[in-house]
Amino acid sequence: MHRLYQTRRRLAPSLLFALLILVATATDRAGAHTGHGKPVHVHAGTCDAIGASLFQLYGAGADVSPDGTPIPAGAVVGLVPFKGVAGNATTIDAAMPDLVAARHAIAVDESDAASAQIVARGVIGGQLLGDDLPVALREENGSGQAGIALLRADAERTVVTILLGIDLAVPEA
Asked: Are 145 and 169 in contact (CB under 8 A)?
């Protein structure tokens, strides 16, 4: 009996340590996919020939910025909120005239994983609506996700607002 007690006593710290590692790993994975939302980047190039990521935006639907700072949730107004729209706004250090003068695209990824599929993307350009440049983010890879990016000049910077619709289409009967 004494020998069994000693064995359990020696194993307990090891098992506790292993459990803590497992919980920490699971928490990190969940945070990368939920708290950061769907990753969004401004890339060089076009949708057909997407290039290097130039700017990382706040993820669509993120409640934590890439550096870990909490993003305050907007106030809920009107009727019951619909959960099918994810969005965020990010100010980037690029003048809007520079973004439209060269080829740039916006891509939304499924997750932070390097092999993640692009779920929506659009090329930066089009007709201004007042001070805003709307960019259609078309569905990619059968994701059921599409949306709009609104770009607005802010002196030598640009505010990029992402509005991503998730499964908004009515299913076919």
From this structure: no
